[in-house]
Each structure stands twice: as C-alpha cells, then as structure tokens.
Amino acid sequence: MKKHGICSKAGLVAIGVGLFMLLTFGQSSSASAKTTQQSVASFNKVKVNLVSNDLKITTGDHFSVKTTNDKRLKPRIEVKDGTLQIKASKKQAQANQHNKWATVEITLPKGQQLENLEYQNVNGDLYVDQQEIDKANLESNTGSVKIKRSTINQGSTVSLDNGGLTITKGRLEGGVFNLKNGNLQMHNVSQRGTTKISNKNGDNEVIGANRKSGYALKTNNGTNKLFKKTTDDHQLTQKSKNSNQLSLTNENGDNTIKE
C-alpha cells in the first residue's frame, strides 16, 4: 500500500511538472513575440520564401512591412532592384514550427501594380486583398491561400499540398491551380482565357459563373454539377470551343458550378 501511495505521488508530481513546462514554454514563446513595422523603398515585385509565417498583402498609404515574430526569428527583408525580398532566417528555417501569431504583412499604396508575386511557404497561410498582379506563382506545403478583390492579369500558378484555395470578387486571366488536399472555392470571379484546376482530394466549387463560358468537369469519385445539370458520370462539358474555358479535374471530390 505504501508503494502504491509513493507511485501515485510520483505520478502527480510528473503531471504537475509536465503542465508547468507546457504553460511556461507556451507563455515564453508568445511573450517573446515582437512586432516591428518599417517603411521600405518602392517596389513592383515581391519574392517571399518563408517557413512558418502567415503572410498578408494589402493596401495602405505607403510601402511598408510589418512583422510579428519571436525576436530571434525575424525574417530578412530588403528591396533590391525593385523587388521586395522576404526570406526566413536560418534559425527560423531550422525551427520549422508554426505559431499562429507569427505573421508578415506587406502594404502597398493603393493603385500600385505588382508585376510579379513569387510565394513559397512551408507552413503558413497567405491572404491577398485589393491587389492587381500581372503574374503570380504560389507554392505552399501546409496552409491555405485566400485572394480577395484582386486581379491577376497574365495567368497564375498555384500549387498547394495541404490547404484550400479561396478566390472571391476578383478577375483571372487564365491560370493553373493544383491542389492535393483541400477545397477550392471561387465566388463572383470573372474569368478570361483558359483556367485549369486540378484537385486530388477535395471539392471544387464555383459560384457566380458565366453561362456563356466553356466548362469541362471531370471527377473519378464524385458528382459533377454544371448549372442545372447533375450527373455521377465522370465527365460533363459545355461550349468546348469558347475562348474562355474553365476546367475542373478531380480525383476524389465533387465539381460544382453555379450562377
């Protein structure tokens, strides 16, 4: 009986120590976060390579970058030849641990157009609002991408391994979107040229589509819905010779297009 009492006390001590360590380290991580905002020289291109930060691109009064990070893990920021370059520090790359408070916010003056947006992230979300971009190349291992009230003029390439893609109230001039594990949502987006969307495991949904455009829906395991047509057949098409084409290809999930 005494041994049992000793074991019970030891277990309680171990639990207490574990809880203390969890709370202590959790508090120290958030407590060490530091927010800094700096004005930067004007730029018309953005190149981002991050490991564990969320990134937001929005409009404001002037060119600036705001970061919230553990002060030891602040990404490197510089403008070179008109390109804003943001790269994860070596320590951050080694840590490779996502914190919801670790963020980077890029602000451009209203009306400033981006010639190119290159984005690579291991573990973090991307949010783009009120931007006009000539070309975008977006890659993410784990994280969602949200694009709102923005225009991408010359096509775009998006590759997401584990995360969803949401585009609302914008315009696309063609593009290629590849998702491996996540849903795609396009709401009230005008589309010109050829846009190809491929998904391995997730639903594709387009709302606010133009009936005059051409569509090709294909799924190996799911339902195709094109306006008022619904079928469990693998493929459904409309106006294949139209100059504006939207293609939805899915391995495991539904394709839905609505007005």
TrEMBL record:
This is DUF4097 domain-containing protein. InterPro entries: Toastrack_DUF4097. The keyword Transferase does not apply. Residues 44-257 form the DUF4097 domain. Residues 1-33 form the signal peptide. The keyword Signal applies. Keywords: Signal. It holds the Pfam family DUF4097. Residues 215-259 are annotated as: Disordered. It comes from the Bacteria. Residues 237-259 have a biased composition (Polar residues).
